[in-house]
């Protein structure tokens, strides 16, 4: 169990404002804001700009709350892993208790204000997303099962659905297609990271697939999920949120993504280690552009549709 009283080796803190911002995982928050905004703008119902801006702001605050709660709970394993050792709590810049207080306060604020700015369904979905990430994923799945990323990926997939619900007040197949894109993208994205962060998850005793089933199995899983993702992503081009431009971009990106996954699958571990996991790192970088590009072109299709562009 996480040591929630985790302190720095010196037991002293010199906290700066930027450290509290770092607790909210700004990189993750930027992805949440972007996909939620696309979900809002792709919806067939227009939203007043002030309401839209306020709603996305509260979604961002909710994402920050999730990040702070995650860092509070994971402070012990963050201290062990090279990738996370410089985060504010293990680096001794923020007390764990303050991270917990910040996460809880922002959670309540974001949900309450989104309910006032948009609707109760969107607020309820944001509350569920925070709970799913902080409790279901961070506190339960992450240290329990190699399927942690697969199931836990749902937390990161909810923002475009929240955006859609902000605009429409209801769910739809289009919203869940955007959810599915992120959900299916998450495992190969993180498994590629796990391949070249060779010892981090072993050292922290986190049951990532590379630890529990081996690196060969992880490579097989990457190509399987990538093939399923490609079918979903290209198929979305023929739906109401797709269109000719989306379809063209999706075909090119998924061919590149499939090639990257195939290259990873056929790699021998000894060769990969010898060249510094260059192909795995390249695939991971491509995965970042992959998601932004798909959602970016969904946004463009939505913006062009009033002018008679796109649609099937």
UniProtKB/TrEMBL annotation:
Pathway note: Porphyrin-containing compound metabolism; heme O biosynthesis; heme O from protoheme: step 1/1
GO terms of molecular function: protoheme IX farnesyltransferase activity
Record's keyword terms, sorted: Cell membrane, Heme biosynthesis, Membrane, Transferase, Transmembrane, Transmembrane helix
Keyword Transmembrane helix: yes
EC number(s) reported in the record: 2.5.1.141
Major location (coarse): membrane
Membrane-topology descriptor: Multi-pass membrane protein
Entry annotated with the keyword Transferase: yes
Entry coiled-coil feature ranges: none
Catalytic activities: heme b + (2E,6E)-farnesyl diphosphate + H2O = Fe(II)-heme o + diphosphate
Subcellular localization: Cell membrane
Transmembrane feature ranges: 28-47, 53-73, 94-114, 120-141, 148-167, 173-197, 218-238, 244-262, 283-304
HAMAP family per UniProt: CyoE_CtaB (MF_00154)
Anything else known: Carbon 2 of the heme B porphyrin ring is defined according to the Fischer nomenclature.
Free-text function comment from the UniProt entry: Converts heme B (protoheme IX) to heme O by substitution of the vinyl group on carbon 2 of heme B porphyrin ring with a hydroxyethyl farnesyl side group.
PANTHER family: 4-HYDROXYBENZOATE SOLANESYLTRANSFERASE, PROTOHEME IX FARNESYLTRANSFERASE, MITOCHONDRIAL
Family: Belongs to the UbiA prenyltransferase family. Protoheme IX farnesyltransferase subfamily.
Quaternary structure annotation from Swiss-Prot or TrEMBL: Interacts with CtaA.
Name used for this protein in its record: Protoheme IX farnesyltransferase
Organism (species): Roseobacter fucihabitans
Originating gene: ctaB
């Amino acid at each position: 169990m996480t040591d929630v009283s985790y302190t720095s080796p010196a037991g002293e803190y010199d906290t700066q404002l930027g450290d509290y911002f770092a607790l909210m995982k700004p990189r993750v928050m930027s992805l949440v804001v972007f996909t939620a905004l696309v979900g809002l703008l792709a919806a067939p119902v227009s939203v007043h700009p002030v309401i839209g801006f306020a709603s996305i702001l509260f979604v961002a605050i909710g994402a920050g709350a999730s990040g702070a709660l995650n860092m509070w709970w994971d402070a012990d394993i963050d201290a062990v892993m090279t990738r996370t050792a410089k985060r504010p709590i293990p680096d001794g810049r923020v007390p764990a208790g303050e991270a917990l207080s910040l996460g809880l306060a922002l959670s309540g604020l974001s949900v309450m204000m989104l309910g006032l700015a948009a609707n109760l369904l969107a607020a309820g979905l944001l509350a569920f997303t925070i709970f799913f990430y902080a409790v279901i994923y961070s506190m339960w799945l992450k240290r329990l099962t190699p399927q942690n990323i697969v199931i836990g990926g749902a937390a990161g997939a909810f923002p475009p659905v929240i955006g859609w619900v902000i605009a429409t007040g209801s769910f739809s197949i289009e919203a869940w297609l955007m959810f599915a894109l992120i959900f299916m993208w998450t495992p190969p994205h993180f498994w590629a990271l796990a391949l070249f962060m060779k010892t981090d998850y072993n050292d922290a005793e986190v049951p990532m697939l590379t630890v529990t089933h081996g690196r060969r199995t992880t490579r097989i899983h990457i190509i399987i999920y990538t093939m399923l993702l490609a079918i979903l992503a290209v198929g979305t081009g023929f739906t109401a949120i797709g269109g000719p431009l989306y379809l063209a971009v999706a075909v090119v990106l998924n061919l590149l993504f499939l090639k990257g996954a195939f290259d990873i699958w056929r790699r021998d571990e000894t060769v990969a280690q010898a060249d510094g996991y260059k192909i795995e790192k390249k695939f991971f970088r491509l995965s970042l552009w992959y998601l932004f590009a798909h959602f970016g072109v969904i946004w463009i299709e939505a913006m062009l549709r009033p002018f008679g562009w796109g649609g099937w």
